[in-house]
Predict the structure.
Amino acid sequence: MMSRPLLISLGMHALFAVIAVFGLPMLGRELPEEMPIVRLEIVRTVPETNLIEGDKPSTAKEAQQAKVSKKPPPPPPPPPPPRPESSKPAPPPPKPKPAASPKVEAAEILPDKPKPKPKKTEVAQVTPKPKPKPKAESKAKAKPSPSVLPTPKPVNRPDRKKPAPTVKPAKANDAVANQLNKLVKDQKKREQAASGVLQNLAEAQLAAEDAEKARKTQERKEAADTVTKTLSAVAGNAVKAPPKKSLSPVGIDDIARIQQHVSKCWQPPLGAAGNDTLKVDIFVSVDERGNVKRAEIEDKLRFNLDSYFKASAIAAKRAIVECSPLPIPPEKFDQLKEFTFSFDPAFLSR
Amino acid sequence: MVLYFFRHPIAARRVSKFLAMLAAAMLVVQSAAAQLRIEITEGMVAPTPIAIADFTGSDGKANDAGREIASIISNDLLSSGLFDPVDSAAFIAPPSSPGIKPNFANWTPLGVKGLLVGSAINDDEGNLRIEFVLWDVVTGRDLSSGTGTADPNSLRQLSHKIADLVYEEFTGDSGYFDTQIVYVADSGSQARRIKRLAIMDQDGHNHKFLTSGLDLVLTPRFSPTTQEIAYLNYFNEEPNVYIQDIRTGRSERLGSFPGMTFAPRFGPRGDRLIMSWAQDGLTDIYEMDLRTQEIRQLTKSSSIDTAPSYSPDGRRIVFESDRAGRQQLYVVNNDGSNLQRISYGEGRYATPVWSPRGDIIAFTKMHKGTFYIGIMNVDGSGERLLAKGFLVEGPTWAPNGRVLMYYKQEPFESDGTGGATSLYRIDITGFNERRIITPSDASDPAWSPLRR
């Protein structure tokens, strides 16, 4: 009799205890699905430096070179060719020395190719032609020739008119010989006349005057020749050799050429569309061949804070690297070796 | 430049000489002091070529997963219209591991700007561990790198997250690939349409229905902060705003209002909800604090004010109203002050949606029997129409404010067929319109925020 209420009481207590521990059953309510496991940790790389190492614009190429470690020598060859060209005029004049100076330069970089060239030129020049010239000249000019002449002549003849000189100098030599003969004859006449009386003086004077005139015209001719030759040589060199750097002004066309060149490589992020403030300034320095040595994003603070700016800046820098070398005229290198590119994506919003 | 002419030749010569010297001096000074500046104002507009290498696995299973990851990322990037993933068959030497610096000489010939290299390993718990590095092929530097873990069901989501990262590194915009779309799936005959809420990934995968189809549902809207959707539900012929938790599937009516409530939209922090409330023949805009359930009236007019949308900072609201005779767009502060009409073009304007970036407003326009999806600046200037059709409506923004989704209905044929509806998305440049494949007719899309 007593046990029934007790049992009910115990049962109820137990039920409450169970509810207290496990909570009320959630009927008719779906339990939330288990949260899926998706974790992603990202390390964003901020370029430590904006330097582009060396001549080669991209480390991509460096990597390539590093792997093919034996091939680096070949890449350098391209650089030398321009030098030999420019130095071509140089080797011929110092015939006694030529082998020394150009070879040394070339030997460091170009073991094979440059050597044959100097040899050829040597061979070609050592042959008869050069020798007669100096002799003839020295004879002809022995007395009159101005000291300026000798240097330009050897420079020009070898590289400009190798076949021609043989003919022309011959004619010149003949003329000189004739004149010499005349002079000799005149002198003989004078000697003969010397024994005679004053009448002969006049003749002698005339002869001397003739000789003088001949000499003067010869001098003038030679001077004129040398002037034209040096002029043409200068002009020739100007065409062949790298022109000397002068302060020739940077023209609009120079700038336009660079602009056009870089525009082809520039692919601004379309996220920049409609944003007027995403102008990116990049300081650039180039070497004489227009290779970009350095490309530095100027607003580094914004680069690190503004993701739009960062993407725009990286795209702009990519354009510079991809478009290296830039079309920079060698004679304007001094003015264009350092400048700032300003990339304005406003055209995207047009 | 001003030129002076002098009659006296010597004076003129002197002056010109002086000018020349001055010019030369200025040139030198200029080059020394002020840097020469070259403006680049034109560039190429083309999808960025990129290489997404298959993630390399430790075994066959991981290799399969790695290949799938790469393919998901490639598809995401391709669908954006901003990338041109290079076919992996063109790879000269596929990279072996993200730990090794790739030989860029193998990649530059493909013209790619970026290269994604990754690895995948199955760990003891059956989860996939991945590692990856994103390289800038042109400069030869890594842009970013990362590690991740995913259970087998979350492989797609993990891949979308990586695709978002690539997108962000190259565009500066945050990505939108790891997002979902909720929409109204239509089925049944024209006379007896069944409308159900459905949800899927932005690329159409992982599709599932959220409601049974017993009640008519319209205009679902994502909460920016929680896994909740506000929508309009016709229960017992009475339309009211409901909120559903998409994880549990549980939904409940929001408050109890006499009359009808519709056109709900969450505030930018998810703590408020704005909607239209029609009572006694007046339809005005109200804001509700979701924690306290307090209601505040924002507009008061005898016209129909509806389709409200918050600015990203929550301070202003754009909505449509016919107070001037025809539907037009208006902006008002969130305390009801400073009301301004912003649309003045021809035709009617409706369903304005403020871009998550805050700079533009998307809308539906109706003019001479044609519907348009357009965008305009917040002050109403710079209107641009992006898409048009027999019926295009209901624009919704991707979380980065770069892409819009909307739905399009085909015209009806004379025999009563046609009228199919489907979802489309388009870049705000007006390019790259793409249809989203859904199992059935689809309308009223809403883009979720980026998943965390």
Q: What stands out?
A: The first strand of chain A starts at residue 38 and ends at 44. The mean pLDDT of chain A is 63. Chain A touches chain B through 72 residues (CB under 8 Å). The first helix of chain A runs from residue 3 to 22.
